[in-house]
C-alpha cells in the first residue's frame, strides 16, 4: 500500500521492489530545481507538486487505515478502496477552486480527500458516528460536504451524472465561473443517463467535466467485456471533446485537467477525460480471491511499475524537489495523522437512535 | 367549512391557467425559479399549460430539453442542490418510470444521506388520469409510487384554487415535491383569487360537509366524489367529501375526525387499488376510527389492468359518480 515502504501490504503476494531508504534528513529541498520541461520550476509549481504528493499520500494511507478497520471488523458495511487511483483525484482537484463542485462514487474516499475533506470526519462517517460528515447517515459510499463543494458520493454508478450537470447548469446561471467535475468509473459507461446529460451539457455549453476513471474492472468484469467500440468516440458524437491521460501520472492529469477546467470556465462547454488507472485491491475489501477475473502478474505490474506515488516520488527526487528521507518522514507524519484521525473516529460517539427520523425532510 | 365557501371570489380560471399563474408569480418573485422540460417554451406543453411563460421569462428560464427524462430530471436535482429552484416538467406521468433513479435514489435521499447538509428544493410537475383514449402508456396514475418514498412530498390538487396555492407552496418548499395534475381537468374552471396565497401541505380540505358517510377523494376523484355525494343527497344520505390534497404529508387527523363523525368511509383514488393510496388511507382510518366504524372501509381505484384503449373498455377501469354512489348506498345499508 505504501509507495516507499511495505507497511500496510500484509495481504499482497509480492512486495514492491522498493527498499525503505534510511532517514538522513527531514527537510524538503528548496526549489533550486528544474521541472519536466527542463525549465526552472517556480515556487508555486514546487509547492503544488509537494502538495499533490502529500494529498496522494494522504489518500493512500487513509485507505490503509480503512483496510485495517475493515479487516479488524471495526467498520460496518463495505469498503471500496481507491488505492492505485490517487493521481486521478489529486490531479483533477488540484485544478479546481474551493467553490467548484465535484460528484463522487462508491469508490470515493480519494475524491473527498483531494477536494479537501478532513480525514477525522471522514473516518467518523465510515464508522457511522455522529461526528461524521453526514452524521453517520451516509457512510463510506455517500460522503458529502458543501464546504468543499462535494455534492456527494453516489452508489449508483452513473447516479451523479445528472447532479454534476445540474450543478454546472446552476454555475452557468449564477455566472461566478464555477465548474463541476463528475467522477465516475468506466462501469458507469453502461448507464444511459451519462449520454443524456452529455447531450444536454453540450447543447447548453455547461461547465462540466466528465472524468471517467478507467480502472479496467466493472466490479469483477474486465471493461472490454462490457464496453463496445471506442470510449473516446462517444463524447465527440455529442460534440464533447474527449481525451485520455495516464491516470498514474499526477502531473499529466493536473495539466490536462487545468486545460479542461479553464475551457469550462471560459464558457466553452463540457469535456470528457478518461484517466487510465488501476484498482490495486478488489472491488471491495472482501474481494480477496481475484484470479478468476485478473492475474496476480497484472496486479504486480501495476503496483511495481505503474504506482502513481512511486512514479511521482522518483520524479520529485530526480528534480531535486525533495529527497527520499524527506519523503519517508512525510510518510511517517501522514501515517500518524491518519492514525490520530482514526482514533478520533473510534472514540467518537454514535448518533442517538432518536436521530433516525431527523433530516428526512429539510 | 370548505375553504372556498369562506371567501367570495369573483374571478374564475381554468386549472391550466391557475397552474400557469402560480408559476408566473413565483418566477417573478424568485429569479432562481426556472422551468425545465420537453416542449415547455414556445409550445407551452401539449396541454398548453405553460403558454406565454417563455415570452415573459425568456428561454434562459423556460428551458426546452431533449426527450431525456432521466437526464433533465437529474439536472434538476443538481441545480436544486446548488441554488436554483427548478420546476421539472414530465409531460405524462407514465414517463416517470424514466426518472425513477433520479427521484428515488437521488432527489429523495440527498438530504438524509448528507446528514441534512444538502437540500433539493425542486418540483417535478406531471400528469395523471385515464379516459383520454391514450392507452396504457399515457394514462396511468403513479402517485402512489412516490408517496411510498421517504424524502419526497406528493401533491394532488383537485381544483384550480388548490392548484395555484399548492404549486406556490411546492416551489417554496426546500424538499423535492412531486406535483400531479389531472390532465382531464386542465380545462375545468373554478374560482381563483388574484395575487398571493399559498396552501400548506398536509392540510386536507373538506370539500363538502356531511354526516352519514365520508368519501375521501384525491385529484380527479374529488369531482367524482362530489358528484356521487349529490346523487346520495337525493336519496337522503349526507356525504362528507374530503380531499387530502397531499398524500405525503397526509392529514390523518382530519380523515379520522370525519370518519369518527360519519362512521362510514369510502376512499376513491385513480391509482391502482392494490398496495395503493386507497390502501394507505383506509388503513389510517381503520387504525384511527376503528371503534366508530359501522362498516368496513371501502376502497375504489383503477382496475388492476393496463389502461385499455377502446372507450368501452377504458371507461370501466376508473371509478365514476355512479359506481361511487352505488358503493356508498350499499355501505349505508340503502342498496
CATH topology of the largest domain in chain B: Rossmann fold
The geometry of chain B reads as globular
Low-confidence stretches of chain B: none
From N to C, what is the helix and strand string of chain B? EHEHEHEHEHEHEEEEHEEHEHEHH
How much of the sequence lies in strands of chain A comes to 5-15%
Give the CATH class of chain A: Alpha Beta
- Unreliable stretches covering 5 or more consecutive residues of chain A: 5-28
For the secondary structure, the number of strands of chain A is 8
- The total beta strand count of chain B reads 14
CATH architecture of chain A: 3-Layer(aba) Sandwich
CATH topology term of chain A: Rossmann fold
Shape of chain A: globular
Percent range for β-strand residues of chain B = 15-25%
Query: Helix segment count of chain A?
Result: 11
Largest interface: A-B, 45 and 43 residues
CATH superfamily of the largest domain in chain B: Thiamin diphosphate (ThDP)-binding fold, Pyr/PP domains
Q: Which strand order do you get reading across the main beta sheet of chain B?
A: 3-2-4-5-7-6-12
**Cross-sheet strand order for the largest sheet of chain A:** 2-1-3-4-8-7
**What does the average pLDDT of chain A come to?**
91
**How can the largest sheet of chain A be summarized?**
6 strands, parallel
Annotate the secondary structure layout.
The complex is a heterodimer of chains A (362) and B (335).
Chain A: H1 43-71, H2 86-94, E1 101-105, H3 109-114, H4 119-126, E2 150-154, H5 161-174, E3 180-185, H6 193-204, E4 208-214, E5 217-218, E6 221-222, H7 234-237, E7 242-246, H8 250-265, E8 271-276, H9 296-305, H10 308-318, H11 324-347
Parallel strand pairs in A: 1-2, 1-3, 3-4, 4-8, 7-8
Antiparallel strand pairs in A: 5-6
Chain B: E1 12-14, H1 15-29, E2 33-37, H2 53-57, E3 62-64, H3 69-81, E4 85-89, H4 100-113, E5 123-128, H5 143-147, E6 153-155, H6 160-172, E7 177-182, E8 189-191, E9 205-208, E10 213-217, H7 220-234, E11 239-243, E12 246-248, H8 252-262, E13 265-272, H9 277-289, E14 298-302, H10 311-315, H11 321-331
Parallel strand pairs in B: 2-3, 2-4, 4-5, 5-7, 6-7, 10-11, 10-13, 13-14
Antiparallel strand pairs in B: 1-8, 6-12, 9-11
Helix pairs in contact in B: 1-6, 3-4, 7-11, 8-9
Amino acid at each position: 500500500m505504501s509507495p516507499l515502504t511495505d507497511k500496510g501490504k500484509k495481504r499482497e503476494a509480492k512486495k514492491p521492489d522498493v527498499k525503505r531508504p534510511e532517514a538522513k534528513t527531514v527537510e524538503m529541498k528548496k526549489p533550486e530545481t528544474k521541472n519536466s520541461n527542463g525549465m526552472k520550476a517556480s515556487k508555486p509549481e514546487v509547492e503544488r507538486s509537494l502538495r499533490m504528493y502529500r494529498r496522494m499520500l494522504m489518500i493512500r494511507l487513509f485507505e490503509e487505515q480503512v483496510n485495517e478497520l475493515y479487516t479488524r471488523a471495526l467498520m460496518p458495511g463495505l469498503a471500496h478502496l481507491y488505492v492505485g487511483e490517487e493521481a486521478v483525484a489529486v490531479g483533477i482537484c488540484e485544478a479546481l477552486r474551493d467553490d467548484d463542485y465535484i460528484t463522487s462514487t462508491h469508490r470515493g474516499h480519494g475524491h473527498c480527500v483531494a477536494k479537501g475533506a478532513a480525514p477525522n470526519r471522514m473516518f467518523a462517517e465510515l464508522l457511522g458516528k455522529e461526528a461524521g460528515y453526514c452524521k453517520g447517515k451516509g457512510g463510506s459510499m455517500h460522503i458529502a460536504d458543501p464546504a468543499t463543494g462535494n455534492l456527494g458520493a453516489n452508489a449508483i454508478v452513473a447516479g451523479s451524472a445528472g447532479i454534476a450537470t445540474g450543478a454546472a447548469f446552476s454555475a452557468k446561471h449564477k455566472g461566478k465561473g464555477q465548474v463541476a467535475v463528475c467522477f465516475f468509473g468506466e462501469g458507469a459507461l453502461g448507464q444511459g443517463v451519462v449520454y443524456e446529460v452529455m447531450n444536454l451539457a453540450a447543447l447548453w455549453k455547461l461547465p462540466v467535466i466528465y472524468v471517467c476513471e478507467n480502472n479496467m474492472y466493472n466490479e469483477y468484469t474486465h471493461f472490454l467485456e462490457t464496453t463496445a467500440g471506442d470510449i473516446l468516440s462517444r463524447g465527440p458524437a455529442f460534440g464533447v471533446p474527449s481525451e485520455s491521460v495516464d491516470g498514474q501520472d499526477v502531473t499529466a492529469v493536473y495539466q490536462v485537467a487545468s486545460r479542461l477546467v479553464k475551457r469550462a470556465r471560459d464558457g466553452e462547454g463540457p469535456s470528457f477525460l478518461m484517466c487510465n488507472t488501476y484498482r490495486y485491491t478488489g472491488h471491495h475489501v472482501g474481494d480477496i480471491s481475484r484470479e478468476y477475473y485478473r492475474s496476480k502478474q497484472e496486479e504486480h505490474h501495476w503496483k511495481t511499475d505503474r504506482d502513481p506515488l512511486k512514479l511521482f516520488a522518483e520524479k520529485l527526487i530526480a528534480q531535486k524537489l525533495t529527497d527520499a528521507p524527506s519523503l519517508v518522514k512525510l510518510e511517517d507524519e501522514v501515517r500518524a495523522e491518519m492514525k490520530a484521525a482514526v482514533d478520533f473516529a473510534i472514540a467518537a460517539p454514535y448518533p442517538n437512535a432518536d436521530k433516525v427520523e431527523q433530516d428526512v425532510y429539510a | 367549512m370548505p375553504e372556498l365557501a369562506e371567501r367570495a371570489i369573483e374571478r374564475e380560471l381554468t386549472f391550466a391557467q391557475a397552474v400557469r399563474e402560480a408559476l408566473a408569480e413565483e418566477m417573478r418573485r424568485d429569479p432562481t425559479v426556472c422551468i425545465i422540460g420537453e416542449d415547455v417554451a414556445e409550445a407551452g406543453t401539449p396541454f398548453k399549460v405553460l403558454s406565454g411563460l417563455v415570452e415573459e421569462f425568456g428561454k434562459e428560464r423556460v428551458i426546452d430539453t431533449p426527450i431525456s427524462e432521466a437526464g433533465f430530471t437529474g439536472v434538476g436535482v443538481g441545480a436544486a442542490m446548488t441554488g436554483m429552484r427548478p420546476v421539472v416538467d414530465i409531460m405524462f406521468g407514465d414517463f416517470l418510470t424514466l426518472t425513477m433513479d433520479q427521484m428515488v435514489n437521488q432527489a429523495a435521499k440527498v438530504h438524509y444521506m448528507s446528514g441534512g447538509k444538502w437540500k433539493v428544493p425542486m418540483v417535478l410537475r406531471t400528469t395523471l388520469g385515464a379516459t383520454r383514449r391514450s392507452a396504457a402508456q399515457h394514462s396511468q396514475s403513479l402517485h402512489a409510487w412516490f408517496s411510498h418514498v421517504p424524502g419526497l412530498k406528493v401533491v394532488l390538487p383537485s381544483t384550480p384554487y388548490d392548484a395555484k396555492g399548492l404549486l406556490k407552496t411546492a416551489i417554496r418548499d426546500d424538499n423535492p415535491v412531486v406535483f400531479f395534475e389531472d390532465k382531464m381537468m386542465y380545462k375545468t374552471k373554478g374560482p381563483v383569487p388574484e395575487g398571493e396565497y399559498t396552501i400548506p401541505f398536509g392540510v386536507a380540505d373538506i370539500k363538502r360537509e356531511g354526516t352519514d358517510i365520508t368519501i375521501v377523494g384525491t385529484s380527479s376523484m374529488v369531482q367524482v366524489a362530489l358528484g356521487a355525494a349529490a346523487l346520495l343527497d337525493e336519496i337522503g344520505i349526507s356525504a362528507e367529501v374530503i380531499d387530502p390534497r397531499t398524500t405525503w404529508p397526509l392529514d390523518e387527523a382530519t380523515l379520522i375526525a370525519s370518519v369518527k363523525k360519519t362512521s362510514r368511509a369510502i376512499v376513491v383514488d385513480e391509482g391502482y387499488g392494490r398496495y395503493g393510496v386507497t390502501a394507505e388511507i383506509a388503513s389510517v382510518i381503520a387504525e384511527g376510527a376503528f371503534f366508530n366504524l359501522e362498516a368496513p372501509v371501502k376502497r375504489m381505484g383503477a382496475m388492476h389492468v393496463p389502461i385499455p384503449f377502446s372507450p368501452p373498455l377504458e371507461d370501466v377501469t376508473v371509478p365514476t359518480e355512479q359506481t361511487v354512489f352505488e358503493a356508498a348506498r350499499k355501505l349505508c345499508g340503502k342498496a
